[in-house]
Amino acid sequence: MQKYNSEKLKAISDNIRIDIIKSLSEAGSGHTGGSLGITDIFTVLYFNVLNHDPGNPEWEDRDRVILSIGHVAPVLYSTLAHAGYFPKEELKTLRKLGSRLQGHPGKEHGLSGIELSAGSLGQGLSVSVGLAISAKMDNKNHRVYSIHGDGELQEGAIWEAAMSAAHYRLDNLTAVIDRNCVQIDGKTSDVMELEPLADKWKSFGWNVIECNGHDHAELIKAFKDAKTFKDKPSVIIAKTIMGKGVKEIEDNYRWHGKAPNKEEAERFIKQILKK
Amino acid sequence: MKYINKGDKPTKTGFGEGLAKAGEKHSNLICLGTDITSSVGMNYFSEKFPERFFSLGIAEQNAIGVAAGFALAGKIPVFSTYGVFAAMRVTDQVRVSVCYNNLHVVIGGAHAGISVGPDGATHQALEDIAVMRVLPNMTVLSPCDATQTKVATIAAIEKVKGPVYVRFGREAVPDFTDPNQEFEIGKGQLLKDGNDISIISTGHLTWEALHAAYQLEKEGISARVINIHTIKPIDEHIIVKAARETHAVITAEEHQVNGGFGSAVAEVVVRNFPVPMDFIGMNDSFGESGEPEELMQKYGMTAASVIEKVKKILSL
Asked: What average pLDDT does this structure show over A117-138?
């Protein structure tokens, strides 16, 4: 698929955000804050970084994206639709009976572009490790991108997986942490401190890259640096703001698991367009 | 025909032999170890195909996810640890990463049952059948001896498309089934015909069930013995036929009665042809340390306990 520069990416991420808000408002429930906060990362991944072909989603040599935090499904769906995996019209069916757009990604419902049914936190990195070892065994050059929340890192299984990725020197694996510093009960530092986060990953044998998770150019560089680093898996700790793009909900953990009503949705969309 | 013990052999050896055999034919077969590789019989594979064996340390939750990743990439991963961990420490990982994705991951549940003996309750898997059979997409195999465990393992690799749990034990137990048997997923086996009652059993207890039936024959009671090596999908036909023709059913398993194999049989019986039933197995308690035979006796999982239950149910 064509790779876009950071100028074009800005407009794409605005449109992805607008469709996230529309679909969540139609659904009446779902995770708004996290989906908007991680939108720039998804935009850069799907419109600049990944080797993929929306017309041939099962292409053997495609890069794999494992979304461990299934609750931000709206950003995955909106990004996939914008990339051309399925018609944008279908975004309206989010969370509805019979929809291919399940509340958390469910492959058995047949939506193209989904690599893994997931949503129970702390499981995706292990799956990514299996995919990455497998690619190395088969001398394949595709990469595995594993997307995680920061709160999710409180799950012990993440660190089991982190150990194993370093043990097998999986330099074809890039993990991305959406470091927004908030989770459902409040600030991550109040719920369960994660710092010193970069040191934790370093001590587990990973190459650590820190960047601004809303700056497209910085993200592009971070993904490039991860790709060229040898012998260790890389983790990009991307500093983000939950609810990014909609000023009135930015950094407000109350919007972690809440959907906007019709009125709010209209207001939010205006705020995104104004910028 | 009367079944003869060819010599005691642990069912985990059958698991290991099955992996080694299937590994020759399937170059995409992968084994994942969590520090107890020989203890679960996986050394038969890891010594033969070291390049396809991956050590993952004492980290079962990760191992299940790694297995799911291998399966997504087109490999056939086998993960094995003690049944207590395989079924319960990682239930959520098995449910979501493996079952919800309907991935062909082979899970070996070792050290099943109370016959693990002296290690005591923490390591005696007595709830794994109940947990595994309730998960959508999961196939549950529970072979009765080492020979059958070998063919069951190969069938789990070759014939099942989705997740599959293979249950086996540590103790050497009578090895009596035909080495040339074909393992048909979902098919029960009529080992001995009879008209007065049916003893439907799984795993190690099938040998006890047979011996109970031989003894009962001498006392004028004609007991049918059916071995169920596939608990899910279960062979409804053979169970309903048994209920219809013998009018009483006893199940036998080295596992909790609650929610286990007996419950699976009862679900079939009550829906189709309700008859009096009773259950041999653990009765809602943990095990304890002891020699395997002492424990089997204390907790009522021997031929003698089968005979006792048969007589009780027939006198109703």
From this structure: 98
Domain boundary among B173, B198, B227: B173
Q: Taking the complete model, does pTM exceed 0.95, yes or no?
A: yes
B65/A129 Cβ within 8 A: yes
ipTM: 0.96
pLDDT in the model for residue A275: 66
Pick B62's closest partner by Cβ from A134, A135, A160. Answer: A160
Q: Is residue A258 part of a domain?
A: yes
Asked if residue B1 is part of any domain, the answer here is no
Band (pLDDT 50/70/90 cuts) for residue B267 is very high
- State the nearest Cα–Cα gap between B65 and chain A, in angstroms: 5
In this structure, what token pair is assigned to residue A47?
């419109």
CB spacing of A126 vs B101 below 8 angstroms: no
Domain count, chain B: 2
Domain match, B134 and B203 both? no
Report the amino acid identity of residue A175.
Answer: A
Question: Are B222 and B132 within one domain?
Answer: no
- Separation in Å, CA of B95 to nearest CA in chain A: 10
Question: Residue B253 in contact with residue B205, Cβ under 8 Å?
Answer: yes
Judge whether residue A119 has pLDDT over 80: yes
CATH number of the domain where residue B283 is located: 3.40.50.920
Tell me the CA distances in angstroms from B3 to A68, B14, B207, B214, one per residue in order: 51, 19, 9, 10
Give contacts of B 45-74 with A, CB under 8 A. 54, 56-57, 59, 61-74
Interface contact A130-B102, CB threshold 8 A: no
The 10s digit of each residue's pLDDT in B90-142 is 999 999 999 999 999 999 999 999 999 999 999 999 999 999 999 999 999 99
Q: Which chain B residues are closer than 8 Å to A120 by Cβ?
A: 92-93, 95-97
